[in-house]
Amino acid sequence: MSATPTLVQLRRKPLSIRVDSIPPSRTAQQKGAFICHGRIRFYTKKAVRQQEETLTGLILSRLPEGWEPFDCPVRVSIKLCFPYRKCEKKAVMASRSEIPNDRRPDLDNLCKQLLDSLQTAQAFRDDGQIAALSASKTWGPAGYWTVTVEPLEEWPEFDIGLKTRSVLQSIERLSGIAEEMGDGSGTDTDEWKKMFWALEELHGEVVGILGDLEAANRKEKDAK
Question: What is the percent of the chain where pLDDT is above 90?
């Protein structure tokens, strides 16, 4: 049997999504326009709106059961791989390697729609939480796209073994003080008050330690 680790990293795991299909090619910038009362009005085209709904549905279907959106700063990584063009060199196609894609639509516009869909699907609560962003666009033997959302909130390592020992030591100290106090008879009043305050302080320490242990256990379960 392997030893149970005492150090628990209180941090949620990244959310990783992969869809084995051609990446989205329509962007939110592809809007329609019309003139009304002398003013230009813009609207989201039906095809763009349908693509947004499709993306959101694909993301929702891949969220883990019981998913709770990240509520801390996050790093988002996006990779879009489009199928080889017919004009691709035979050597490239034979190698089945991915090569840079410098064709439209623009990568930043494609990312914007994916990020909007991630927020709509509640991968995170608000796109303002995105503190770091990386993206790439390639040609490859088959189309696919991936998104990874990684929490950037740092949690200190939590030594459960140390906390458990602290609880036991505090309980021993509590027992010792309780024995000294007895029923309070024959004890100097000031001395009795000091022991009582010490007892109150130790009780608070034990409650705090037990609260830390409960929080560590809860966060460990959330990370699994």
Answer: 45
Q: Please answer whether residues 115 and 59 qualify as being in contact, where contact means their C-beta atoms are separated by less than 8 angstroms.
A: no
Regarding pTM above 0.70, the answer is: no
* 74-83 and 130-140 strand pairing: parallel
Based on the fold, state whether residues 88 and 58 are members of the same structural domain.
yes
> In the 3-class helix/strand/coil scheme, how is the chain assigned residue by residue?
CCCCCCEEECCCCCEEEEECCCCCCCCCCCEEEEEECCEEEEEECHHHHHHHHHHHHHHHHCCCCCCCCECCCEEEEEEEEEECCCCCCHHHHHHCCCEECCCCCCHHHHHHHHHHHHHHCCCECCHHHEEEEEEEEEEECCCEEEEEEEECCCCCEEEHHHHHHHHHHHHHHHHHHHHHHCCCCCCCHHHHHHHHHHHHHHHHHHHHHHHHHHHHHHHHHHHC
Q: State how many domains the chain has.
A: 2
Q: Which residue, among 67, 50, 65, has the nearest Cα to 117 in the 3D structure?
A: 50
Q: Are residues 170 and 134 in the same domain?
A: no
Residues 174 and 144 in one domain: no
pLDDT digits (tens, 9 = 90+) for 144-161: 999 999 998 755 455 555
Predicted confidence (pLDDT) per residue in 49-93, tens digit? 888 899 999 999 999 998 999 988 999 999 999 999 999 999 999
Residue 195 sits in the same domain as residue 90 = no
Q: Looking at the domain assignment, is residue 2 inside a domain?
A: no
